[in-house]
Please model this.
Amino acid sequence: MIETGVDHATVMRGGVEPGSTMALEQDNVETAQGDRPCRGQPHDATTDDSNHAAPYAIVIFRMATSGTKRALITGITGQDGSYLAELLLSEGYEVFGLTRRLSASNYWRIEHILDRVTLIPGDLLDQLSLIRVLDRVRPHELYNLAAMSFVPASWDQPMLTGEFNAQGVTRVLEAVRHVDPSIRIYQASSSEMFGRVREVPQRESTPFYPRSPYGVTKAFGHYITINYRESYNLFAVSGILFNHESPRRGLEFVTRKVTDGVAKIKLGLADSLSLGNLDAHRDWGFAGDYVRAMWLMLQQDAPDDYVIATGEAHSVKELVEIAFGHAGLDWERYVKLDPAFIRPAEVDHLIGDASKAKTELGWSPTVTFNGLVTMMVDADLKRLGQRP
Ligand code: NAP
Ligand code: GDD
Model:
């Protein structure tokens, strides 16, 4: 269900994990509402609610009368939002997603569940929209995943990154405080905050030393979440998640860039792949595992912050070797180094210690690094192999 001004909504299809029925081409665009049942009437986000009293009355009546738990996800169209929505649906939640207006809709990651989630317009930049959405949905749990998440872009647009990732978090917390302080909040913090690491491995108590505007804004989001928990007694938690990937990862991030590049080379659609720093190390896990940790954090008796990581670090070079090797290719023939992909300041080596999450949440990862990379290569080979 889409409660947005999307009477001409489009579904942009762009990639999916193995086994999904989703079509896979970004240039394969079709109308969303032609595809699936849609309750309620589409409306323009800028118009007065009174024009839409009937559909909202139905939604609110259903909320008031059902004992079902409701969750609101900001960033539902992103990698993590899509996996989290699937998890919450499987746990019996009624799932709502805050989506911002784009000139072309970006629903390819949630296309397969669009008939089971309700999308409502709003933007982290717009305080009133957040208050309106919370007032309408009255969720039990709010997962704030929306962000400008691509680190290099934060040097290009540092101010906007701060509006999304720092003040955006404050707006979400303010909305909760004013609408219903009993809403439980998950904030998406990041291992990028550790930056030039002060301790190896990194744990909850490790001091931050962010190395990008993105990392700095995430540190603000982290601390303002803790501050609102302590100032207003909110059930607000921060998950300090290390890199997590999947076939739904954006194409600009290094794992997906590599697996997509390998598939293109294997299928004769490209003859090389340009990369930056091959020596950087990351603690990479599978996104499907990591959203389970988010949910577990909100099921605890008391709010707290947790590191979520595999405890294993690998270099970009190892990633490249495994991905090309899985497709039977010699990476040294195809990979070119391009200084354009070197960052003004780099995070050299991240490795997390998730023992607190293991002990207190009972969380542990299920997908190995090798399994993750080969899963992603296979998904990209399948997706690109299906091109007409
Ligand atoms: P992603 O795929 O880039 O998704 C970001 C989401 O945020 C998209 O749904 C995007 O919507 C939405 N968004 C961006 N700006 C918005 C705004 N102003 N108002 C409303 N929505 C907005 O990111 P992800 O990998 O799923 O990551 C989820 C969260 O975890 C992010 O906060 C990220 O910083 C954090 N994190 C990620 C990782 C990781 O390795 N993936 C690790 C640590 C922390 P559109 O579709 O409209 O662009
Ligand atoms: N993107 C990219 N492209 N990265 C490259 C490339 C390239 O061509 N070549 C080398 N790298 C290196 C980067 O320099 C970095 O050290 C590493 O690969 C990982 O880069 P990304 O995949 O872009 O991820 P990230 O670590 O910068 O950020 C991700 O993880 C954070 C958690 O630590 C994002 O998901 C952030 O949103 C998240 O918070």
Residues 4-62 have pLDDT under 50 and may be disordered. The pocket of guanosine-5'-diphosphate-alpha-D-mannose (ligand 2) is lined by residues 149, 151, 190-192, 242-243, 252-254, 257, 275-277, 280, 282, 316, 341, 343, 346-347, 350 (CB under 6 Å). The chain is about 35% helix and 15% strand.
